[in-house]
What does this fold into?
Amino acid sequence: MGKEKAELMQIAGKFRLDGEKEQVVPYGSGHINDTFLLTCRAGDREKKYILQRMNHEIFKDPKGLMENVVGVTSFLQRKIRENGGNPEREALNVIHTHTGESYCKLEDGTYWRMCLYVEGATSYDAVEKQEDFYESAVAFGHFQKLLEDYPAASLHETIPDFHNTADRLEKFRAAVEKDVCGRAAGVQEEINFVLERAGECGILCGMLASGELPLRVTHNDTKLNNIMMDNETGKGICVIDLDTVMPGSALYDYGDSIRFGANTGAEDEKDLSKISCDLELFALYTKGFTEGCEGSLTEKEIRMLPMGAKIMTLECGMRFLTDYLEGDHYFKVNYPEHNLDRCRTQFCMVKDMEDKWKDMQDIVERYL
It folds into this structure.
């Protein structure tokens, strides 16, 4: 964003800090918000904070977003304290402004927030070993367990209809019909792939609406780099990046993790022979997630885990294809067919899951 250090220090000064501001530097690899690491010093003691500019073009209700974050983190801290844990390391801690707000809005219209830096832990952008994938599963499952009593319906939808796959299908149909870029004729095979599975798109939404699946607090961005891993033990200790915390199904978080974490190829791999659902990784994540949930998942949720993986993968592929048809206005692309390549990997993954459906069902049966 190009904010000068002096300006960043001035913004940081609006929050209740422990010590004198010493240094501020860019931090992390996120693409949505601008993030900085602030170091303060009180005597011989150093204290670090994360300062962020919230992207209000993507998250159009910063107030509602921060109400979600404060509500969830306060709840987590209380649960962690009751369990004998360390709430300063095992949950995000929002730092309030001098006027008691959870964020501040500057005269230039930007929104800023601050949280305590999680000491002695690191987030990783890629899975370097299977244990990392397993630990992320345990951490996201534990996140579900800690929040099982949270009133999920009270949360704001920071991105409305984010995992409403039935709504995504209608938007896809509209994009096909309008065909504003004249691309539909060249992707009839991909269009038909979606339409052949249209009947499945409303499954999870319908089960949530009927109460067959419980409404839960969902993270909705279950990537490895949203887990802080303890530097000594290697275990996931804190779930971060709560911007997309919303009401939904645990199958959303589980399914999205399988979608990218158990895929044997890159999201934009052109050689589809490299794309498959790795059943060993599928089993490993399922084991970690159910262990982390500690019995809080219902029998129906566990039986539906393979469907969660399939629907989240199908939905993502459909979103890539919709964006391709509409002219690539949502996802960043590096070449004209980038979204199409992404779409094809997701659909290839869906087809491979369908071919391995009985094996996936057998794996989840172990955890009933």
Remarks:
- The radius of gyration is 21 Å.
